[in-house]
Amino acid sequence: MTGTPPLSGQQTALLQSLKAHGISVKIYRHQPVYTCEQADALGLHTDANPTKNLLLKDRKGKQFFLVVLPGKATVNLAGLSEALGTSRLSFASSQQLDTYLQAQSGAVSVFDVMNDPEHRVSLVIANAIWQVQAVECQPFCHDQTWVIATQDLARWLQGIGRRYQTVDHQ
Q1: Tell me: the pLDDT tens digits for 41-67?
Q2: Which CATH number applies to 9-167: 1.10.3470.10, 3.40.50.2300, 3.40.470.10, 3.90.960.10?
Q3: Which of 19, 39, 57, 129 is the most exposed place for a label (fewest CB within 10 A)?
């Protein structure tokens, strides 16, 4: 049978959560991508800004941060460490991505906070994200991009009780 493949259980739960808060998203299906560069090469023309999403940990591996940056941003771990008032940051392992966010490398997005009901991971969003109308996010997979208005993203985060801090990222 041909047609659009069904959404995963996680995606269905996310859509239900968004709808419960009066939020809709635009869904783009495409070949799997694993990096921002590969996503750019698709040429989706979504009229939204791509995001780069990183799970970082402090030196001792006690604090974890899901950092949401503009897609073209370069990552300055020392600057982020200073802005967050924590010891040196490094990238979390694939195992930690799975443990804390049930996420796959290359498919991390702000939506993954839904999989962290205990708030073990601090959410950090670059101020630049809030300066655009809409952002692109990968919803728990490599072969879809969902576009959400930033004001709707803020409303959803508030609705699910998810706090975040903002940082200026250069």
Answers
A1: 888 878 899 999 999 999 999 999 999
A2: 3.90.960.10
A3: 19
